[in-house]
Design goal:
Strand content: 15-25%
Radius of gyration: 45 Å
Number of helices: 3
Number of domains: 2
Number of strands: 6
Helix content: 40-55%
Order of helices and strands: HHEEEEEHE
Largest sheet: 6 strands, mixed
Structural class: alpha+beta
Shape: rod-shaped
Oligomer: single chain
Strand order of the largest sheet: 5-4-3-2-1-6
């Protein structure tokens, strides 16, 4: 069937076709290498910040900062918890009422002053002013209740302290 064919010529033609194909592939590889180089340049340009530092390095620094901030935040929360625990034992609620203890004395010189901590423990200090003498009384407050009898002004001062929101409003009785 293939009688009379010059096999040498066929091999030469096949080798030539393979050579041309190889040459085309080498040219195509060169084109792809050139395109890859341009793409790499664009990638490197894109992956730099304004100072020329790579975005990866910048992200690495930012993540390290976030970890540091996380540690700082945990320390702040722990400190805040400690402060809140101490604050419950500090006086922070105030009630104050000025009044006239006697009808013939003016200017509201008598007062009831209540100071409580975060657990509503504290004291009520009251001063009764008279023309000839002045007396001061202190009564303990435990869990928002006085262990002794209280005057109306002292009760009002205690109620003011229990409802204290941070601003002191002086109540004067006429």
């Amino acid at each position: 069937m293939f009688y009379g064919l010059d096999w040498q010529l066929i091999y030469l033609a096949a080798a030539g076709a393979v050579g041309v194909l190889l040459l085309l592939l080498i040219i195509y590889i060169g084109i792809l290498t050139h395109r890859m180089g341009k793409l790499k340049e664009k990638y490197e340009f894109f992956m730099q910040d304004e100072t020329g530092k790579s975005v990866e390095a910048k992200l690495h620094e930012d993540v390290a900062r976030l970890h540091d901030l996380q540690d700082s935040l945990e320390l702040i929360h722990k400190t805040q918890k400690d402060i809140m625990a101490v604050q419950n034992h500090c006086f922070r609620k105030i009630g104050f009422v000025k009044y006239n203890a006697f009808d013939n004395i003016g200017n509201n010189l008598s007062f009831a002053f209540t100071v409580l901590d975060g657990k509503n423990d504290g004291f009520c200090l009251s001063s009764v002013y008279g023309r000839n003498e002045s007396r001061i009384f202190a009564k303990p407050i435990v869990d928002g209740k006085c262990l002794y009898g209280m005057s109306e002004e002292e009760k009002e001062s205690l109620d003011n302290a229990l409802q204290y929101t941070g601003t002191l409003d002086t109540v004067q009785k006429d």
